[in-house]
Design brief:
Helix content is 41%, strand content 16%. The protein has helices spanning 16-20, 31-49, 65-76, 90-101, 119-128, 150-159, 179-182, 208-211, 225-234, 245-261, 264-284, 312-321, 347-360; strands at 5-6, 56-62, 83-87, 106-110, 134-138, 140-141, 146-147, 163-167, 186-190, 201-207, 300-304, 324-325, 327-328, 336-340.
Length: 363
């Protein structure tokens, strides 16, 4: 069932049992689906996300992770609010694009793509702009693989009593995060990332007390986060519009497999080992990593082209023939490619990958 290993930041390689979970059909009005699957997922998500799950609630939303980011910004930010968007890559900048579409009052604080977000700069800005009401930031920016210092960022935002929105698209489920401990108010992720489900929906884990105040703010019918949540609450797992039933059932299986692995801490340990094997092997072959080790996440790793004559498309096709699929680079500052460390992949897979790259050579 695996023609190749998908070494990207999502969609990613999934287990055969996650795929097999999609082989049945479910009725969106049936309690076996709404109560037996959707409500179980919602409860497990808040339990995974916080040591105080009673403070939070989970909302599932059709579409990709960007749909969920847009739903959150479009539902949570009022016309009278002011948003600070912090960006050091394409996905942080995308929040600024969404803010433009919705005509939000916002300021885009940009850092270099290869630079971690600086909490001190956020601190200074919030001190100078007390009118800011919300701050949004990406935890793991998969443009490069940089891991932003979420604990320090959250501490600054909470010191200034602002609402914190975190895009944890490629980190939640693979890196331990405690929303309550950090003071995160809205966290956004997707089914096809570190939980290791398949594409089709994302989710928002929200501080219940704040989401309850968002009625009537949304500028979109389909992306009304509050109304989606209210319908799920009153309907015991009912979605407003047709839900991706097969994908949702696969996600419940993926949650079971996360639990069987030992939870997020165990998965984080595996991803870190995947990354270590990859980096050690690639460096031994002569490749250089884009980021210094202290800024690098275990989610996805960027490598410089080994030479000016390096042909990525040729390299990609030859690796695909060896049953590995990787990712092109995404930055303008340097010629790079990326390799994802997440999914149903293990250190032995990365030993095989490094051997295959050694066989192909650097040309």
């Amino acid at each position: 069932m695996k023609p190749y290993l998908l070494l990207t930041p999502g969609p990613l390689t999934t287990s055969d049992t996650v795929k097999q979970a999609m082989m049945g059909d479910w009725c969106t009005w049936d309690k076996d689906y709404n109560v037996g699957i959707v409500e179980v997922i919602r409860e497990e998500l808040v339990t995974l996300a916080s040591t105080r799950p009673e403070e939070y609630t989970a909302v599932l939303m059709q579409g990709s992770g960007t749909f969920c980011v847009e739903a959150t910004l479009g539902t949570v930010i009022r016309p009278t609010d002011s948003l600070l968007v912090v960006a050091n890559g394409a996905y942080g900048k995308r929040m600024g694009v969404i803010a433009d579409y919705y005509h939000l009052n916002y300021f885009l604080m940009e850092f270099e793509e290869t630079q971690m977000v600086d909490p001190d700069k956020i601190d200074r800005y919030l001190s100078e702009h007390p009118n800011v009401s919300h701050v949004s930031v990406v935890h793991c920016e998969t443009t490069t693989g940089v891991l932003n210092p979420l604990k320090e960022i959250a501490s600054v935002v909470k010191k200034h009593h602002k609402i914190l929105i975190v895009d944890a698209m490629s980190s939640f489920g693979g890196i331990p995060i405690d929303l309550f401990d950090l003071g995160i108010d809205f966290m956004i992720s997707s089914a096809n990332k570190c939980i290791q489900g398949v594409p089709g929906f994302g989710f928002i884990i929200a501080r219940r007390s704040l989401l309850e105040k968002c009625k009537g703010i949304a500028r979109s019918l389909s992306l009304d986060l509050y109304d989606q949540w209210a319908t799920m609450e009153s309907g015991h797992g009912k979605w407003r519009f047709t839900s991706p039933t097969h994908v949702v059932r696969a996600f419940m299986q993926a949650l079971e497999e996360l639990k069987a692995e030992g939870g997020i801490s165990a998965r984080y340990k595996r991803y870190c080992e995947n990354h270590r094997v990859l980096v050690d092997g690639m460096r031994a072959l002569g490749f250089r990593t884009l980021l210094p080790d202290n800024e690098q996440s275990p989610i996805i790793t960027s490598f410089y082209y080994p030479s000016e004559s390096f042909d990525f498309n040729d390299f990609y096709q030859r690796l695909k023939a060896e049953e590995f699929v990787i990712y092109p680079g995404k930055i303008s500052q340097a010629d790079t490619f990326r390799i994802g460390n997440i999914g149903d992949v293990f250190p032995d897979d990365f030993h095989r990958l490094v051997n295959a790259i050694g066989k192909i050579g650097l040309k």
